[in-house]
Amino acid sequence: MERISLAAGTALCLLLTGLAVERAFGEPVDDTLEIDGVPMITRAAAPEGHPFDEVLSGWLFREAETRATQEDSFENPGMLAVERGGEIWETVDGSMGKSCASCHDDAAVSMKDVGATYPKWDADAQRPINVELQIDKCRVENMGAEPYKFDDAEQVALTAFVKHQSLGKPLAIDLTQGELQTWWEKGKDVYYTRTGQLNFACASCHEASMGKYIRADHLSQGQVNGFPTYRFNTAGMVSLHNRFRGCIRDTRAEMPKAFSDELMALEVYVTWRGTGLSVETPAVRQ
Amino acid sequence: MRRILAGAACAIALAVHPLAAFADEIAPADVAFDDMKVTTSLTGVPGNPEEGAKAFANRGLGNCLACHALEALSKEQFHGDVAPTLDGVADRWSPEELRAIIVDAKQVFTEETMMPGFYSLNVGLNVRKDLVGKTVLTAQQVEDVVAFLATLKE
C-alpha cells in the first residue's frame, strides 16, 4: 500500500476535515478538465469487451488541490520536465551529430499523435515498442548514442515532452498491427494474475475496488493516460513502468524489470483499457 | 553485576525466542478448517488484545485499516472502505470463525475475496524473495488479533 506523504496542504486539509469528508467524496468527481483551453475527455464510453461501461481518468479521483494544479500549466510542476524535454529534443548527441529535431523537426507537428497511439508493433524487434523504447531506438540507430538507463531524468523528460504533444487526443492504439493482439491477451493475463504475499491482482484494486479508499488512497481505474506524471509525494516525475513496478511491489512480489515482456504486455493491455481518454501528460498526482 | 548482566541477556534471549510459544505452534499448512471455523488455538497461548490492536493497525503487520474502518481505533488516521467496518464484529462471528477469517479468508469467503491470508502460504505468484515461505502475521499475532476482535461488541 502507498506510503502516506501528501503535499502539506492536502494533508492539512485531510486532517482538518477527516474521514467524513473522504467518504462524502468517495465517488469520482463530476467535474470537467480543461488545460490551456483544450478540453480533456476524462470520461469515455468503454470499448467493446471492457469490464466497465465507462472509462475514467485518474484526475477525477484526486483531491481538489491536486486537480487544480493539473488544470493550470503554470502551476503544474510536470511542465518543467516537458520544457527540459524540449531542450533535449534540440540537443545534438551521439556519434552522428544529430538531435531528435534533425530528423523530426517541429515536435508539435511530427509527434502530435504519438502519445495517443503508442505502444505500436516493432517489426524489427518483433515485440511492442513504447515511447521510451522508440526514443532509445532512435538514439542507437539514428544518432549513434547510448540508450538511456531506465528512469534516467532525460528519458523521463523527453518522454513527457513527446507525449505532451498529444495533449487532449484520445487514446487509440491499433491492435491489428503485427502481433499486438497476442500481447494484449498476455497483458490481460498479467492484469488478472494475483501476485505476492498479499495475493492481489491489478484487478483487485483497480477493477473490484475502484472508487474505494485503501487507507488514504482513492483507488482509480489505474489508467495510463497521464504518464509520465508529476507526484507531490516524491516531488518528481514518475514514469509508467516505475508506477507498474510500484503497484506490483505493494503486493509484496518481486518487481519485473522495466520494459520486460511482462510489463510491455501490461502497457499494451492497460493502454487499451483507457481507450477514448485524452492524453493528459504530464498529469499531477499526490 | 555479573548476575544482572546474565539476567538481562536471558530476558533479551527470551524476548527474541519465545520458546514456550513455539512448542505447540501449528504450521500454516496444518491449520484445520472445519465449517468456516478454526477451533484450535494456533499457539496454545491466549491472545493479548492490546498486542492484537497494535498488530491490527500496524502498516507492516495486519494493516487491517487499509481496508476496514473501525470506530474503536478512530485515533489512527486513514481507515479504508474496501471492506465492511469491524465495529461489533464479535457479535457477528465467534472467535473460532474470526481465527479462520484471519488465517485464510479465501477459505471462508470466496477465492475472489480481496482479503489477504494472514497465516497462509496459499499466496500469489513471484512472492518477494525474502518473504517466500513466510506468513504476514505470526501464529501468536493471529491469536492476539483474534483476542482484540473478540472485544469488539456493540
Automatic annotation (TrEMBL), chain B:
Signal sequence interval, chain numbering: 1-23
Keyword field contains Magnesium: no
Keyword Signal: yes
Pfam hit, one: Cytochrom_C
Listed GO MF terms: electron transfer activity; heme binding; metal ion binding
Record-annotated Cytochrome c domain positions: 47-153
UniProtKB keywords: Heme, Iron, Metal-binding, Signal
Superkingdom assignment: Bacteria
Alphabetical list of NCBIfam families matching this protein: thiosulf_SoxX
Entry protein name: Sulfur oxidation c-type cytochrome SoxX
Organism whose genome encodes this protein: Aquibium carbonis
Lineage: Bacteria, Pseudomonadati, Pseudomonadota, Alphaproteobacteria, Hyphomicrobiales
